[in-house]
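Me: I keep going back and forth on a fold encoding question. No explanation is needed for now; the record alone will do.

Assistant:
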Amino acid sequence: MRHWHAMMAVVAVAACADQPSTGPERFAASFSAVGSEGAPPIVFNTQMRSELEVPTSTSESKGHAQIMILADGTIESTVIINNKGDESVRFGHIHHLNPGQPTGPVIWWLSNPVGTDLNLTDQHLEFRQQGIFVTNAHFTSHEAALAELLRDPASFYVNFHSDNFPGGFARGFLP
């Protein structure tokens, strides 16, 4: 519910601005202007499951991801993985899908250090960090990606990769 209230406030601010909206950067700037330090974040929750992966994963591991967008546009994530499949967890991301495509490029890293194969094998894994934007084929800036995330969150998914499933062992779409 908070997501829609914040989204409507952004639309209202953009509609009332002296200058017409010119694209994602304008939208992201309007979003930042609406919030204050005390403004509640926009929160997306998703369950990551193996059957949502492409190709489908047979891992028994699953997880929950919470993605929060703060008033200043910062993305904070909390991911909890129940590693029932004894995966050697390498890293995690937020990806973006174009319509009709089964996978998409990495937009934000959700594990750190970026590009490092973590090889975590604990039964219970928890990741908490800020999303780290990666320039990619879909977006050249964090602001452009953020504007699209706010406009169409369902075109983004969170997934984590392992040695057994390099393309991903569990995926969850943002609502």
Remarks:
- The chain has three helices and nine strands.
- The first strand starts at residue 42 and ends at 48.
- Residues 2-16 form the longest helix (15 residues).
- Confidence is low (pLDDT under 50) at residues 1-35.
